[in-house]
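This part of the workshop introduces the protein records we will be handling. A learned vocabulary of local backbone shapes supplies the integers on the structure line. Getting from the letters to the tokens is the skill we practise here. As an example, a complete record with its sequence and its structure tokens follows.
=====
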Amino acid sequence: MASSVETVSDVIALYSLNVAMAIVIFVVGKWLAKKVANLLTAMIKRNPKFDETLVNFFDDIIYYVLIVVVILTALEQLGVESTSFLAILGAAGLAVGLALKDSLSNFASGVMIIFFKPFKIGDFVTAGGVSGTITEVHLFNTEFTTPDNQKVLVPNGAITAGSIVNVNAHAKRRVDLTIGVGYGDNLKIVKDIITNIVQSNDKVLKDEAITIAVSELGDSSVNFVVRVWVNTPDFWAVKWALIEEIKNTFDKEGISIPFPQRDVHIINEKN
């Protein structure tokens, strides 16, 4: 009887030791996995040819792969065969896939974003119902920073499911303005004024086509179209500056800018 008790005690002690070792392996392994992932991504960042968009994505992949290795090692310490565990995991894969179909979809979309590169870190993008600067691309979501400095995490699936507008995709952008003047104004004078304003703006690219022309005879105005090319970072500054300068100059020169009006005629009928 005493030998049986000693045997049970030995088994419990051995199992407890294995459990303790498994916990230590998992805790230390998780810490090492993060350190190794950070070290590898730091080495990747030093390569000037490496796309910054890939850094966080690969950091996540490296970390999770190492975590799987740590878990398998801890399970082996408990006496669980890794092959058996992988077989069970494979059998449960379908159920897990169905339960996590949205997460898997976001992961697949993340791979597509990395592979096709519709944008990079620092680009201003409209996608997934959000407009903002791309700050990070992760396995399952992409981080945007909005113009008013809000952090927005958008699922990768939502990004690839719709259109993606990348404002910074090209080095140059065209500023399009529609300027309306009165029917009584001299169109040649108006065109000369707009031309002088455009030519005096040093951020307008003079080697690109500049269009200033009458585009439409509207209900209450003659509409000019103004099209100029600028470097992408200068887009908003030039657009706002041109609008302000045109309005101020028109006021000085007596050029009218019509606004929608409606004449109401009241007819009194005698009984």
Remarks:
- Helices lie at 2-45, 53-77, 82-91, 93-99, 101-116, 156-161, 187-200, 235-253.
- The chain has a mean pLDDT of 81.
- The beta strands are 124-127, 130-137, 141-145, 151-155, 165-166, 172-181, 211-217, 222-231.
- DSSP finds eight helices and eight strands in the chain.
